[in-house]
Structures are given as structure tokens and as C-alpha cells.
Design goal:
With 365 residues, the protein is of the alpha/beta class. The chain has helices spanning 43-51, 65-74, 92-104, 120-127, 144-150, 172-181, 207-211, 240-249, 257-268, 270-293, 317-326, 350-364, and strands at residues 30-31, 76-77, 80-81, 87-90, 110-114, 131-135, 137-138, 141-142, 155-161, 187-191, 216-221, 234-237, 298-299, 305-309, 329-330, 332-333, 342-346. Strands 4-12-11-10-9-5-6 form a 7-stranded mixed sheet, with helices on both faces. It binds pyridoxal-5'-phosphate.
Length: 365
């Protein structure tokens, strides 16, 4: 190889494979491959974005002050609003995940993630030269005992997706037990990307754990229930020291002005999120029920997607994906998550969700 040579390990990092968005021969596809919002975006967010069209020559507010204040007003820790100083915004939660890995780990360190947690933790660890350690799950859910048993002298960060990309979740008391067992010098990152969809009473996003400790952060995204995936917007709530570290490492203008404006409008449109939650609760329930009627096993989900199992040698996950693609429906394989027999299907609109079941009915014959 001639030319500059990247740092050792960089070329071993696998490329992230996003959900498909096109199928040859279909003008209109039903895209259920990236857990995007079924209801699109809040109309207020779209209007706020458009309003900035003639201001594109201006730099954004590097501190995202209005956005952080709006997030702090709307989100609660118990009865209290959050402190905007404890929030940092990012170019998607992906950016924050990378910054956390870069800030707290490097060569010789370990970053723990769970077997079916968000793939980006692994890639972020590799990106900073740290060793990603995959800890087994129990019932497709982070296993607190296994995580605590694996935390060692070299562990710097523990990433937990709650809910998990499998659709399951850890109840609040389990998350608190995980935190209580982690040494103070290890950072626990609770990635609550799908928090808005969860309706279980024993679930908590992790806000209150952050408020009470120096070694926990919670990451959130505008890409899922808020329907702003294309804008790339996420945020992190954490102790002042960690937020200070992220502010040092991030780009000075890491969140664009239209993303900030749309984010403010989106977070204030609480009625939109309520509609998104209600729509999801109805259709995730309906879809899981229909899957059972079809004799298909699935991982019980509290999110806006469901992982369906295809064990039959003749009716494999890959064949199901191909069949659905033939019907113009895009879903996600779970190979990167170590679940090759599963297919992940996002909840769409009513007709899209019904089309999934009709397609699967034909597939199973
Ligand atoms: C668990 C989890 N965390 C984080 C993300 C990344 O979200 P963002 O679009 O904010 O980077 C995703 C996206 O798929 C996710 O599933």
C-alpha cells in the first residue's frame, strides 16, 4: 500500500450497513428497515426548518442554547425540569457515542457492550483503538449479572441500549442495580433511543440515575419517535464533568441551524409524540398478534419494531427479506446483531403494517 497508512486497527473496522431504502422496479417502497417514525415529522418542526432556508449563510449557535433549554423544559427528572447545562447536543446520538468512546477509552482499554446492543458501540470502540467486549444477554436483553461479572480493571465504558435493538428492555430496578455495581471510574452510557415508545410502568429512561451520580449519562435521539432522522440530531444528559469533556471534543458547530430550529419545535410538540406513541402501541400490538396467528415466533417488543424469527430451513430470514422486497417492503436483516435467523420490521402506517402481514402470509404459503 502506498500513501498514508491509517492507525493500526482502522482498516479492520467493518462499515456500518444502513437499512435499505430502494428496491429496483418499485417506485413506491414501504421502508420499514431503519425504525424511522411512522408518522413522519411534526409539522411545526418542518415549518421551523423551512424558516431557516434564507439564513443558510449564517453559522449555527455553537452552544445550541435554545435547543438545550427546550429539551430541559420538556424532559423531567422526577418532578424537576432538567438543567440545560447538563445537556450537550450532537449530530445524532451516533456522534455522542463516538465522542464518549474517544473521551474515556483508548488503546489497552475495554468498552463493554451487550451481545445484541447497538452495533455502533463496537465500531466506536474500534475507532478509538479500544477493545470492544461483547457480553452475553439473557432473553435478548442485557444481563446485569453477566455485565457486572465482566467489568474489570481495563473497563472504561459500559454501553447499554435500553430498550435494546432486539425490542426488549431492562426494568428500572435492574438498570439501577447495574449502575450500583459498576465502579465509580467506569462510565455507564444508557442509550435510550426508543424511550418515547415505551409504555411499561417499570421502565425509566435513566434520567434519574444521571441526576444522582457522576458516572452515568443518558443519550437520546430525534431520529425515531420525533421523525427527524434526516437532520441528524441527538443529545446527551450527564454530569457537568462529562458534559464539559464532550463540549471540548465536539466540533464547535456540530449541530446545524435548521436541525436546532426543528429540534426546538419538535421537542415542544408533545402532542405529536403522544400521537406517535399511541399509533405505535396500537400497531405493535396488532402486528405481534398477527405474527402469532401466522405461527411466527418474535421477540416481545416495547419499541417501534419487532424482530421475527425464521427457523424453517426452507423459509429462512434471508428468503423472507427477499420475498418482502419483491412486494416493495424493505425490512432489516439482523446479521450485524448476531441474529441471522431474525428479521427486524419497523412499525409503519396502518396500510404499511397490514401489507407486511399480507406479504408474510403469501411467503409462508
Ligand atoms: C439503540 C440505538 N441507539 C442510537 C441510534 C442512533 O441514532 P441517531 O440517529 O441519533 O444517531 C440508533 C439508530 O438506529 C439505535 O437503534
Amino acid at each position: 500500500m502506498s500513501g498514508p497508512i491509517p492507525r493500526a486497527g482502522v482498516l479492520e473496522i467493518p462499515m456500518y450497513v444502513p437499512g435499505r431504502s430502494r428496491v429496483d422496479g418499485h417506485d413506491r417502497v414501504i421502508k420499514l428497515s431503519s425504525n424511522e417514525s411512522a408518522l413522519g415529522s411534526s409539522e411545526h418542526a418542518v415549518a421551523a426548518y423551512r424558516e431557516l432556508a434564507d439564513q443558510l449563510h449564517r453559522y449555527p449557535d455553537g452552544g445550541a442554547v435554545e435547543l438545550r433549554e427546550a429539551i430541559a423544559r420538556v424532559h423531567r427528572d422526577g418532578g424537576n425540569r432538567l438543567d440545560a447545562d447538563n445537556i450537550v447536543c450532537g449530530e445524532g446520538s451516533d456522534e455522542i457515542i463516538h465522542l464518549l468512546a474517544a473521551a474515556y477509552a483508548g488503546s489497552g482499554d475495554e468498552i463493554l457492550h451487550t451481545a445484541h446492543g447497538f452495533v455502533m458501540y463496537r465500531l466506536a470502540a474500534q475507532g478509538v483503538g479500544a477493545e470492544p467486549v461483547s457480553v452475553p444477554e439473557r432473553d435478548w436483553t442485557p444481563d446485569v449479572d453477566a455485565l457486572l461479572a465482566r467489568v474489570g480493571d481495563r473497563t472504561r465504558v459500559v454501553f447499554v441500549s435500553n430498550p435494546n435493538p432486539t425490542g426488549t428492555y431492562l426494568p428500572h430496578n435492574e438498570l439501577a442495580r447495574l449502575h450500583a455495581g459498576i465502579p465509580e471510574n467506569v462510565l455507564l452510557v444508557i442509550d435510550a433511543a426508543y424511550a418515547e415508545y415505551v409504555t411499561r410502568e417499570d421502565y425509566a429512561s435513566g434520567v434519574e440515575l444521571v441526576g444522582a451520580a457522576d458516572n452515568v449519562v443518558m443519550t437520546r435521539t430525534f431520529s425515531k419517535a420525533y421523525g427527524l432522522a434526516g437532520l441528524r440530531l441527538g443529545w446527551c444528559y450527564g454530569p457537568a464533568d462529562v458534559i464539559g469533556v464532550l463540549n471540548r471534543l465536539r466540533g464547535p458547530f456540530n449541530v446545524t441551524a435548521p436541525a436546532q430550529a426543528a429540534g426546538v419545535a419538535a421537542v415542544e410538540d408533545t402532542a405529536f409524540i403522544e400521537r406517535a406513541r399511541q399509533h405505535n402501541t396500537t400497531w405493535i400490538g396488532w402486528l405481534q398478534n398477527e405474527l402469532e396467528q401466522l405461527g411466527l415466533q418474535h421477540i416481545p417488543s416495547v419499541t417501534n419494531f419487532v424482530c421475527v424469527e425464521f427457523r424453517d430451513q426452507k423459509k429462512t430470514a434471508a428468503a423472507a427479506i427477499d420475498h418482502m422486497m419483491g412486494d416493495g417492503i424493505l425490512v432489516r436483516d439482523m446479521n450485524a446483531y448476531g441474529l441471522p435467523d431474525h428479521v427486524r420490521i419497523t412499525i409503519g402506517l396502518e396500510d404499511e403494517t397490514r401489507a407486511v402481514v399480507e406479504s408474510l402470509e403469501r411467503f409462508l404459503g
